[in-house]
Amino acid sequence: MPDIRAVLTDIEGTTSSIDFVKDVLFPFARQHLPAFVETHADDPEVQHWLHEAAKDAGLVEASRTEVIDLLIRWIDEDRKATPLKALQGMIWREGYESKAYVSHMYPEVAARLQAWHDQGLKLYVYSSGSVPAQKLMFGYSEHGDLTPLFSGYFDTQTGHKREVESYRRIAEAIGLAPAQVLFLSDIREELDAARAAGMHTTHLVRPPLPMADAGHPAVADFNAIQP
Ligand SMILES: CSCCC(=O)C(=O)COP(=O)(O)O
Ligand SMILES: [Mg+2]
């Protein structure tokens, strides 16, 4: 029997629906990004991420309008670029705080996270969304504030989700051997990378997607997982 001490979970397609991200969060960020950048132009953190976005795109001395256009294009392309994710998180905060939306969680997720927490497992998140965006997602969920259940959060500042080294870094950061961690995701390449690092893996195939064999144990929901 594997000695699992921690569950590391993806968000989009795993705890929460892709539709919520694509139909609610992304359009909100797209709509509010131009005004957000203009009104926060003096904020050093915003300036830093605008600069990083321009640098990633190879834009030299780009105007603010050019960087805004770039970021909107990245939203439309669902680019997992760290500067975009950081800025999206700041914009989404305004949506959560103004009650424009609450985050979607699949119906069994909150109860299973609570049960795993209560049985002594440590819970962690690893998402392409920024750590502040992850905390908002679990803090303003349909099932209330789930952040007390989590021991830590990781985003692309730790490394990209399809890279083996990212999972080694996460195991080291949480002080466990990779074999003591169960990683949950809907994306095969992420599961492959986690397994190559030595983690256990479970593939979430949320209905109505047909159950597919991606080479990892596959389940339709968290009720079928027994860490
Ligand atoms: C918590 S942020 C909202 C989702 C998001 O921006 C994203 O890129 C989700 O990526 P994931 O790695 O959770 O599939
Ligand atoms: Mg996902």
From TrEMBL:
Reaction equations catalysed: 5-methylsulfanyl-2,3-dioxopentyl phosphate + H2O = 1,2-dihydroxy-5-(methylsulfanyl)pent-1-en-3-one + phosphate
Q: In which pathway does it act?
A: Amino-acid biosynthesis; L-methionine biosynthesis via salvage pathway; L-methionine from S-methyl-5-thio-alpha-D-ribose 1-phosphate: step 3/6; Amino-acid biosynthesis; L-methionine biosynthesis via salvage pathway; L-methionine from S-methyl-5-thio-alpha-D-ribose 1-phosphate: step 4/6
Which cofactors?
A: Mg(2+)
Q: What is its EC number?
A: 3.1.3.77
Instruction: Keywords in alphabetical order, please.
Output: Amino-acid biosynthesis, Hydrolase, Magnesium, Metal-binding, Methionine biosynthesis
> Source organism's superkingdom?
Bacteria
Q: Which GO terms describe its molecular function?
A: 2,3-diketo-5-methylthiopentyl-1-phosphate enolase activity; 2-hydroxy-3-keto-5-methylthiopentenyl-1-phosphate phosphatase activity; acireductone synthase activity; magnesium ion binding
Q: Which CDD domains match?
A: HAD_EP
Q: What's this chain's function?
A: Bifunctional enzyme that catalyzes the enolization of 2,3-diketo-5-methylthiopentyl-1-phosphate (DK-MTP-1-P) into the intermediate 2-hydroxy-3-keto-5-methylthiopentenyl-1-phosphate (HK-MTPenyl-1-P), which is then dephosphorylated to form the acireductone 1,2-dihydroxy-3-keto-5-methylthiopentene (DHK-MTPene).
Question: How does this chain assemble?
Answer: Monomer.
Name of the protein in its database record:
Enolase-phosphatase E1
Which organism encodes this protein? Answer: Luteibacter yeojuensis
* Encoding gene (name): mtnC
